[in-house]
Amino acid sequence: MHSKPRKSLPRAARGATLIVVVMLVTVLLGLVASLMVYAGGERVRAVASSRAGQRQSCAESGLQLARSFYGRNYAHWNTYLAAPATYNPVRSSFNPTPADPFSSTLLTTNPALFADVDGDGKPDVYLYIRDNEDEFDPVAPNWRRDNDQVAVVGAVCISSTLRARRSDGTQNPSTLALEGLLSYNGGGGPNTSQGTTGTGSGNHN
In angstroms, rounded to a whole number, what is the distance separating the alpha carbons of residues 5 and 198? Predict the structure, then answer.
């Protein structure tokens, strides 16, 4: 017996089938890519959320260290306030070239202003001081001298492992700082007030 020859699909039908297959594959690849992007974004957001709490803890620990350090060294406050390029990272009209907490030179020349809070041997916080507004009219403001035994102290979290990150995973140059008022009572040592949150930049004075 002779088998009948199998009929092949017309060329037009074969072309249409191929187009459908290509479209389906493209859609599937698009879905897979979207899922991968979404999963990656979720991972980055989860890590960022975890690090946010760690950064907050880093800055809070630094603020306590700043209160202790500058409280013990009240006798040197005016020396510190007179050198904002070393002791004050807050940019302002009187401090156009503020201290750079990430400067290796500053770390080398003033290691007492840096502290390791997680025990890994690397500096995590930079401790700073700046004057409060303690002059009254008609006396002009003098941010380089303390008049009322009260100063603003703070800490900037500079940890390389706790820095904020963008959605693409790269490091965000923004920093987290906490600061508060520190008052010196003369006899019993320093008194502290509740801290406030800042970014370590901006015009505060």
Answer: 83
